[in-house]
């Protein structure tokens, strides 16, 4: 699956011709179609794999992600709900669920899930800071939006944007604990 995409699709098509109901082959083909930005075909193959392996958390997780990309947030949340309790993939499902909740306007649920993800695995999901900033902006809390954008840009090593958002946050941040943390981040943030 990590070689040339067209070669991989051709190879899997040959294998699927011999074994069309193979869940692993259909799952792999679904992943390839995601990478090729052919989401309708990806969903077809992921759903076929899921019909053979009902409630497989890996298949459900990727199917939920495709639905988020397609703007089908309610469907994504339904699919991802079966993965939330999975001991291995549950945190990834929680993150994706939070994104779907945010994009569909359920800000309280999105905030709860983003907070849980950031408390447990901030280094695994740095983009969760971006979505928390987006959430704070939608709540009209621009100072906290800048604060979370600063953390996001710090995590992805974009010092210029991290410093810009930190300075904006520091202008109006009232919480002394957050202000102190923001000041420390500003001192550590690279200039570039």
If you had to describe this structure to a student in words, what would you say it looks like?
The protein is mainly alpha-helical. The protein contains eleven helices and no strands. The longest helix has 15 residues, at 90-104. It is elongated and about 65 Å long. The two termini are 36 Å apart. The model has no long low-confidence stretch (mean pLDDT 93).
Helices and strands in order:
Layout: H1 5-18, H2 23-35, H3 39-52, H4 57-69, H5 73-81, H6 90-104, H7 107-120, H8 127-138, H9 142-155, H10 159-172, H11 176-188
Helix pairs in contact: 1-2, 2-3, 3-4, 4-5, 4-6, 5-6, 6-7, 7-8, 8-9, 9-10, 10-11
Radius of gyration: 20 Å
Structural class: mainly alpha
Low-pLDDT segments, ≥5 res: none
What's the order of the H and E elements? HHHHHHHHHHH
Q: Helical segment tally?
A: 11
Chain-averaged pLDDT: 93
Q: What's the total number of strands?
A: 0
The rounded distance between the terminal residues' Cα atoms is: 36 Å
Classify the helix fraction into a percent range. Answer: over 70%
| Principal-axes shape call | elongated
Approximate strand percentage = under 5%
Oligomeric grouping of the chains: single chain
Largest sheet: none
